[in-house]
Amino acid sequence: MALIPVVFLIGMLFLNVLAFGDDTLSFSNQLVLLAAAGVAGIIGLTHGHDFKALMDGSIDNIKQAVPALIILLLIGCLAGSWMVSGIVPAMIYYGMKVLHPDFFLVSACVICAVVSIATGSSWGTIATIGIALLGIGNALGFHEGLVAGAIISGAYFGDKMSPLSDTTNLAPAVAGTDIFTHIRYMALTTIPSIVITLIIFTVIGLTITPESTQVSASDVEASIASVFNLSPLLFIVPAVVIFLITRRIPAAPALAIGSILGIVFALIFQSDLLNSLNATNDFVGYYSTLMQALGTDFSLSIDNEMMQDLLSTGGMAGMLNTIWLIVCAMIFGGVMERSQCLEVITQSLLGLAKGRTSLTATTGVSALFMNATASDQYLAIVVPGKMYSQAYKDQDLAPENLSRTLEDCGTVTSVLVPWNTCGATQAGVLGVATVVYWPFCFFCLISPFMNILVSAVNFRIQKAKKD
Length: 467
Known about the structure:
Shape: globular
Helix content: over 70%
């Protein structure tokens, strides 16, 4: 009975993909999640749970997602601010001069990994550097899913290995070990996974021929230079944002500061562009133009369609579909939790954990299951962490075995689920549907299998220390 809502959800999502392709984020997935929540609610009501308790579960779950929703709105503002100020166009312009097409994919992965390690934030990395790299990749003719996969792979590697990351701190705290022991032990699976990923992207970059585009790289550079006043000084703004995040400033104020600085730099560097967009040529006109860039669709009148798409952004309004999806996913997760469907399923999974390898695999499957049902990567770490902690002790396994599995299977797979907060966010930020990019997120796909393989061959499996 507890599996009925999950089976219903999977079946309806599959039907959505057949009907709408990569446009499922627009509305259909949201409706299916609400319908699945209704199915879970009916099961809960027939098993003695009252309607108010089920509603309270949804409300509590939505409350947990509010910080992520605020960050999403600020990311929309940041994207618009950095477009009208010329920051993102400058990244694309100078990036195309530096990055060779043969090594673009591997370079994008490495750049995002370095920035994510420094900031501890995969979301911040993808929302800033990632957007620019996606623009460069599109201009070079690479498939958008392939570019997004390289960006996400690098960003989530850095997120996992950074002591500044919230998940990297959460996993050892739940498992009962310290963060640096956790990072050192996690390197045994994470380093091989990223090495394999970089090899794959290198081979792809050297062997495939990017799709022909309507304009050449030189045409893209010329178009950007003709619209924007480009200067290396524009990179001061992203440097400030990265510095703030490395100083443990929360993401929301850091992104807000980045948005404000973007507007200031637009007034300083893009006066000609603002004049051309300003219908009334007065303060009210400037205010209207800048507010539109922050809040809603912003695009420039360019004859070429590809360049039009490259130099446009949806602003805060562009994040609303993603926010709608996350709210619906939180409703589904809350009803599943309060109806005790999640508890029944996870307890059944616990019964499968007999030996070391099966315990590792079951923990990983549970983390993935929580990503798909509770729709939140933090719950994918906390719930299995609490549930399997005693089982690892019973098998004399050190807690870092559990914390590593939670990261290898919980943190990185969250971005592969379209209705998870991470999957929905990255699809919304990059403008690439989850079903389009997930086959190319090689690091996220390899990590769970690497974790199970290391456990199966008993490679440096740490035993619990005896008192």
